[in-house]
Write a structure and sequence with these properties.
Length: about 350
C-alpha cells in the first residue's frame, strides 16, 4: 500500500497523508485536491474504493416504439449518454408488434420505482389514443417527458422536430430542381407528426407549384411506416406520373427507391427521392439518400435536461419545444429530365419541274 500511496501522491502532486485522507473519505481536503487524487487513481488504473464510487441516483424509464428503425437506437444511445453524468441509469423498453404494450412497460417501470420516464414517439403522438394514462402518471406524481408528438392537455414538456417545416424543406428542394409533380408518402394520419408533414407538404406545393388542391390529395399516399409501406405507396404514385417523392422516414424512402427500380426506373435519373430522419448509414445507401435531418442529439439532450430538472423539483414550462430540421442533399435527388418537345415536321415544298435537255441527233 505504501508503494501505491506514493505513486498516487506523486501523480496527484500531493502528500501521502492527503491521499490517505481522500481514500478514507475523511474531511479536511479541498475539493480540487480531492478530485486530483481521484483522477490520479483513474490514470494509474487503480479501482476506486466503494465509498468513493459515484452512486446511482436512480432509474429512468425509456420507452421507444421499436429498434428496427435506426433513428430510435440513435435516440436511445444519446439519451443514455446524457443521463450518465447525472447519475441516472436508463431502463430501455422496446415495443414490438404483438409484444409488450406501452402501458405494460409503464407498470413494470413503476414496480422498479423509476424516477421518471421518457416516451419516444409513444401513444402521446396518436390522436386516437386515450391520453389519460399520462395524466395519471403526472398525478402520482411522476416526471415524464415526451419526444415527437404533442398532445394538448398533458402538463408535461414535449420535445419535437418541426415536421411541417421538414416537409416544406423537401418540397422546396425538389421544386428548385425543376420537379412539379411531387408526391408525399408517410404513415397513418392519426399520428401528429404525419398530420404536420401533410400540412407542410400541401402548403409548400400550393405556394411553389400550380397543382390544384384536389390533385394534391391524389398525390398523397398514407401507408404503414417501414420499407414495405414505402414501396407500396411509391408504386401507386409512380403510376400517377410523379417525378419526385417526399417520404415520411428514411426507411419509407428506401422502399420508394426499390419500387422505382422494380419498374425499370433509375433514382435519381427518372425519380428523385427525399427521406426524413437522416438515420445512421443513409449516407452509404445506393444512391446516398437525400434526407431531412432530425436533430436527434439536441432533442435528446433537451429531453434529458427537462426530465432531470423535473425530478430535482425545478420543472420546465409545460409546452412543446420545436427543433428545426436540416436538409441534407446527397445522391438520390437530381434535376428533372426535360420533356423532349415533339419534332416538328418541315412542310413539304413543291418540286419544280426538271428542265428537259436537248437530245443530240
Amino acid at each position: 500500500m505504501r508503494a501505491r500511496l506514493s505513486d498516487i501522491a506523486q501523480q496527484a502532486e500531493v502528500s501521502e497523508a492527503t491521499v490517505s485522507r481522500v481514500l478514507n473519505d475523511r474531511p479536511g481536503v479541498a475539493p480540487e485536491t480531492r478530485q486530483a487524487v481521484l483522477t490520479a487513481l483513474d490514470v494509474l488504473g487503480y479501482e476506486r474504493p466503494a465509498r468513493l464510487r459515484k452512486r446511482s441516483a436512480g432509474l429512468v424509464g425509456l420507452v421507444v416504439p421499436e429498434l428496427d428503425n435506426p433513428i430510435f437506437p440513435a435516440f436511445a444511445q444519446i439519451i443514455e449518454s446524457a443521463l450518465a453524468p447525472t447519475g441516472y441509469t436508463p431502463v430501455l423498453c422496446t415495443q414490438t408488434p404483438g409484444g409488450v404494450r406501452e402501458d405494460e412497460y409503464v407498470e413494470m417501470l413503476l414496480d422498479r420505482q423509476v424516477s421518471g420516464i421518457v416516451f419516444v414517439s409513444g401513444l402521446h403522438a396518436d390522436t386516437a389514443a386515450d391520453h389519460d394514462r399520462y395524466r395519471t402518471l403526472l398525478a402520482r406524481p411522476l416526471p415524464i417527458v415526451m419526444i415527437n408528438g404533442y398532445a394538448p392537455g398533458i402538463p408535461a414538456p414535449f420535445v419535437s422536430c418541426d415536421d411541417r417545416e421538414s416537409a416544406e424543406l423537401a418540397v422546396a428542394h425538389l421544386v428548385a430542381l425543376g420537379h412539379r409533380r411531387i408526391g408525399l408518402i408517410t404513415g397513418p394520419d392519426r399520428f401528429v407528426p404525419v398530420q404536420r408533414k401533410v400540412a407542410g407538404y400541401k402548403a409548400a406545393m400550393g405556394r411553389l407549384t400550380d397543382i390544384a388542391e384536389d390533385e394534391l390529395t391524389e398525390l398523397t399516399e398514407l401507408s404503414l411506416f417501414g420499407v414495405e409501406g414505402g414501396e407500396a405507396a411509391a408504386g401507386r404514385l409512380i403510376e400517377r406520373g410523379v417525378t419526385g417523392l417526399v417520404c415520411g422516414s428514411d426507411l419509407m424512402a428506401l422502399g420508394a427507391i426499390r419500387a422505382a427500380r422494380q419498374r425499370g426506373l433509375s433514382v435519381p435519373g427518372d425519380i428523385s427521392v427525399v427521406g426524413y430522419d437522416d438515420s445512421p448509414l443513409m449516407a452509404f445507401t445506393d444512391p446516398p439518400l437525400t434526407t431531412v435531418r432530425q436533430p436527434v442529439a439536441a432533442m435528446a439532450v433537451a429531453a434529458v435536461r427537462a426530465l432531470v430538472d423535473e425530478i430535482n423539483g425545478h420543472p420546465s414550462p409545460n409546452s412543446e419545444y420545436l427543433f428545426r430540421p436540416e436538409l441534407v442533399v446527397r445522391g438520390s435527388t437530381a434535376v428533372t429530365r426535360p420533356v423532349d418537345p415533339p419534332k416538328r415536321q418541315r412542310p413539304a415544298t413543291p418540286s419544280s419541274p426538271t428542265p428537259s435537255l436537248p437530245i443530240p441527233a
